[in-house]
Design brief:
heterodimer, A: 141 residues, alpha+beta, seven-stranded antiparallel β-sheet, 7 strands, B: 148 residues, 3% strand
């Protein structure tokens, strides 16, 4: 009995250590996954900043404390179909704080000229980095 | 490279699009559906007032089509209301929201009732929207006509 009790006591410290380490890693991974989301760009309305087929990382906490500013590339819910997420550039914000979004490639873009200003709550986050293709690996401007 | 791209591929899609018919709108869609509603109301009024299976069958078909077409009117008007019209248009048409609200309300009334007078009123409301829509584009060459 004594031997068994002793061995479990000896294991307690390493088990607790690894459990804590695992928990911390899990919590970190969870936070990172919630904050950063990966998207594939579909469509040519943001050429040349983003090409169709580019893979980008969206920071969902970018506007938690700050307001979207003119020139930011953002991901937003499509006002006409909430389930659809669109990538556009902030052109200006109006009196109510609603955002006027445009595409960089005017001829290939459906934006606020069509669907009007987008409420701030519809902004999912800021498109921060492109991670694919590698030749274009860069911060999204 | 392709394999790496496949592994790294995100599951979510961010749309950077022009959707299909870029900026192509026409209140004609609402007009055609409203004409169908009116037609069904007239046919319902003309049905014999009996309880035969044949009449009941025809009556339910007419009602079903009236329901569907009135729903289409609402959808078509909604698209023009909130996708086409912009805040700037309110300067030229300050009553824009009221006109659309009343027209879509009328479409609902055409569902809950079966009086052809409602269908006629709906056609009049859509004619007003037709005039506003084409007026906002400074077009005077688009007549409001009826297919039925």
């Amino acid at each position: 009995m004594r031997g068994r009790g002793g061995s479990s006591r000896n294991l307690a410290a390493p088990v607790a250590f690894f459990a804590l380490l695992g928990g911390a890693a899990g919590a970190l991974a969870f936070t990172v996954r919630r904050r950063f989301m990966r998207y594939e760009v579909n469509g040519a309305s943001m050429v040349p900043a983003l090409d169709p087929g580019d893979y980008v990382i969206v920071d969902r906490t970018a506007y938690r404390r700050r307001l979207p500013r003119k020139g930011h590339v953002v991901l937003a819910h499509d006002p006409r179909d909430h389930a659809r997420e669109i990538v556009k550039r902030v052109d200006r914000s109006d009196l109510h704080g609603d955002l006027w979004l445009t595409g960089d490639n005017a001829g290939e873009s459906t934006a606020s000229e069509t669907f009007g200003a987008v409420p701030r709550g519809a902004i999912v986050g800021r498109v921060r980095w492109r991670y694919w293709p590698l030749r274009a690996l860069f911060r999204v401007r | 490279m392709n394999m790496i791209a496949r592994i790294l591929r995100p599951s979510r899609v961010a749309f950077a699009h022009c959707d299909g018919p870029c900026g192509v709108y026409d209140p004609a869609g609402a007009r055609i559906a409203a004409e169908a509603v009116l037609s069904m109301e007239k046919k319902l009024a003309a049905l014999p007032d009996d309880n035969t299976l044949a009449t009941a069958n025809t009556r339910s078909r007419f009602i079903q089509i009236k329901e569907q077409q009135a729903e289409i009117v609402k959808r078509e008007l909604d698209i023009i209301w909130h996708d086409y019209f912009k805040p700037e248009h309110l300067e030229k048409y300050p009553n824009l929201h009221d006109v659309f609200w009343k027209a879509t309300k009328l479409a609902s009334k055409n569902k809950t009732e079966s009086d052809p007078a409602n269908g006629e009123a709906l056609m009049t409301a859509i004619e007003e929207i037709h005039n506003m829509y084409w007026g906002s584009k400074n077009r005077t060459d688009v007549p409001f006509y009826r297919a039925g």
